[in-house]
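Researcher: Can you fold this with pyridoxal-5'-phosphate in place?
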Amino acid sequence: MSNSSLIRPLVHHLHAYVPGEQPKIRGLIKLNTNENPYPPSPRVLNAVKAAVDGRLRLYPNPTAQALREKLARLHGCGPENIIIGNGSDEVLALAVRAFVEPSRKPGVGGQKSECKVQYFHPSYSLYPVLADIHGAARNPVSLSPNFTVPTITELKKGGAWDFNAALTFVTTPNAPSGCGYATAELEKLCRAMKGVVVLDEAYVDFARENAMKLALKHPHVLVARTFSKAYSLCFQRIGYFVGHPELIAALDKIRDSYNVNGLGQIAALATLENLEYYRANFGKIIETREELSRSLTLLGFRVLPSQTNFILAKPPGGALNAKDWLQKLREKKILVRWFNYPDVKDYIRITIGTAREAKALVKAAKAILSS
Ligand SMILES: Cc1ncc(COP(=O)(O)O)c(C=O)c1O
């Protein structure tokens, strides 16, 4: 008997999420997973170090109470409006489990609205995987050209969008395009939706606007945030939702009892006491983003305007396609990301690193172009 017969068919056939590589190559410039190039603030590092002692034998606070209280003060709401996850990936997964009925026939197809996980394409490639893991139907709907969100009229006309979908994810600003969306437009979309809408604001600290007020105004809207990108804390895995207490309580029922590790809670709390440090870093990253975009544009790349800590750039036409660029840059010890999806396969996604790393990338691009 083969072991595969012991595995549920759904799991057996599942295409798992593919995270960006984390290679250990000496001298590598790592611009592939949207990590922050700047370390956490010294106060955060000290807080974590100070907590590494005999207390590690104890369970952490099961509801991350202190962190929820501090975040509540930051966002002008109560701790009952907030749930913390092991990274925002966890709260996104909880939303699928809490709000979407598994369907009889998972995959893309004409399923009932209550079984649908809906999202724009391209956006965060985890959403379809979460739907598949749960056995829910997926409803990917294409963004407009230039990666903007279609208007309500366009969505109605297109016919593919389900205004009753149980759960809709909107990545804002979008990944991997970097395109920012106006809160007024997002509000129109939220108002038109009957099911839960998650506004995934993983990159919002690098954007002009955020939509947090929508989570506190509309009972079916949740905003997802993370400490990973803007707050240099990928390693500690802290993300959260803000939204109506009834939705938050439903999510709280199904999470693991101790889903947020203790050192992560301590690091996130210390981060919130040091926001000036991080805001200065956002400024540096935005400056580098704009400078890098200008330099690559001068070299013939088509760089999409970005409101995130990465850019999506189409290399100049020539013998090399985007996948070749990934390889050529890798040979020069610069790691970027390439996605094999129809709408973005001609682009490479470049995380914004330090100004020095951006210069090295431009130098490498020049060398590749002239070789
Ligand atoms: C759009 C988006 N949402 C959420 C996440 C998950 O972030 P984390 O689980 O590290 O909080 C990512 C990470 O790449 C992302 O790109």
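Model: Folded with pyridoxal-5'-phosphate in place. The mean pLDDT is 96.
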